[in-house]
Specification:
- By secondary structure, the chain is α+β, with helices and mostly antiparallel strands.
- The protein has two domains: about 170 residues, Ribosomal Protein S5, domain 2; about 120 residues, 2-Layer Sandwich (Alpha-Beta Plaits), CATH 3.30.70.890.
- It contains ten helices and eleven strands.
- Strands 1, 2, 3, 4, 5, 6 and 11 form a seven-stranded mixed sheet that branches. The protein has a four-stranded antiparallel sheet with strand order 8-9-7-10.
- Strand 3, helix 1 and strand 4 form a beta-alpha-beta unit.
- Helix 2 crosses helix 3 and helix 3 runs antiparallel to helix 4.
- The radius of gyration is 19 Å and the shape is globular.
- The relative contact order is 0.20.
Length: about 300
């Protein structure tokens, strides 16, 4: 009998301001994959967000699954998958990382690879180039990591008790374009400041000191000063959210989504303000996903 299962993988945000290419946070938007071993590769997409993606072994999930199995010397058997997603593509919400995590998890299950968490992280990091989004999608909650070339290191931090509000513009911003506006190098003063602010950010989250964390989130020097010109909603949203009690507002990943972190109970009010002000944007009130990928159904 063929192996099958229904897998849910969470979306994620990266950076949280100064934690550039290092800090990730998973939340409750999901890529859902109903997968069954087959004699051919076939992908069906039931969500409009996924329209236009490959329907054969060129699909990113298939590419990752085959590579994952090959690293263990196993040939990945074909499978059919039906996908649904509420993760907007090319919006800085970890859609590609969720697909990569799905490919790793599917290969691990269907090919019985018995991968360790460290192996899953290293595989994901090789595809992504940084462990923030992929770490959050693989393990849930808040993560802090570093890519060291052929390997990566990652630790889970306590899941923050906060409201998350995502302001999603109607336009895409490709990661490559967002990276092209960044400087090739930073002077020593800025590098020291950026590193110190990021250290303080992690320490504040470890102590559940969200006021301090919020101040640090808005002191990035690595990317937001350069990317904010690409996202017209960013600075007005930051000011509006601050006036309504938010801890901080940052660019989610490479953008264009703007992410606001607020005290519990204040998210709804900020979301309503966003809807009234940014008519052409989608506004999402989100919660942290602390568990990561979940096999909801599993069969042999």
């Amino acid at each position: 009998m063929s192996k099958s299962g229904l897998l849910k993988v969470p979306a994620s945000t990266a950076n949280l301001g100064p934690g550039f290419d290092s800090i990730g946070l998973a939340f409750d938007l999901y890529l859902t994959v109903n997968v069954t071993q087959s004699d051919r590769w076939k992908f069906s997409h039931r969500s409009a967000l996924l329209s236009g993606l490959p329907e054969d072994e060129r699909h990113l999930i298939a590419v990752v699954a085959k590579k994952t199995a090959a690293l263990r010397g196993v040939e990945m058997a074909p499978f059919e998958a039906v996908l649904e997603s509420d993760i907007p593509l090319a919006r800085g919400l970890g859609s590609s990382a969720a697909a990569i995590a799905a490919g790793i998890e599917i290969a691990d299950k269907l090919a019985n690879l018995q991968l360790t968490d460290a192996e899953k992280l290293n595989i994901g990091d090789q595809f992504e180039g940084h462990p923030d989004n992929i770490g959050a999608s693989l393990f849930g909650g808040m993560v802090c990591g570093v890519s060291l070339g052929e390997t990566a290191e990652l630790l889970k931090l306590p899941s923050p008790d906060i409201d998350l509000i995502a302001l999603v513009p109607p336009y895409e911003l490709k990661t490559e374009d967002a990276r092209n506006v960044l400087p090739a190098a930073f002077d020593r003063k800025d590098a020291v400041l950026g590193s110190a602010v990021s250290n303080m950010l992690v320490a504040a989250f470890m102590q559940h000191d969200y006021e301090t964390a919020g101040r640090m989130m808005e002191r990035d020097v690595f990317h937001e000063p350069y990317r904010k010109t690409l996202i017209k909603e960013f600075m007005p949203a930051r000011e509006l959210a601050r006036n309504h009690g938010a801890y901080a507002t940052v660019i989610s990943g490479a953008g264009p989504t703007v992410l606001t972190v607020a005290p519990r109970g204040k998210g709804q009010g900020i979301a309503e303000q966003y809807r009234a002000t940014f008519n052409d944007c989608n506004v999402l009130l989100l919660n942290v996903d602390s568990t990561g990928p979940k096999w909801i159904q599993s069969g042999e």
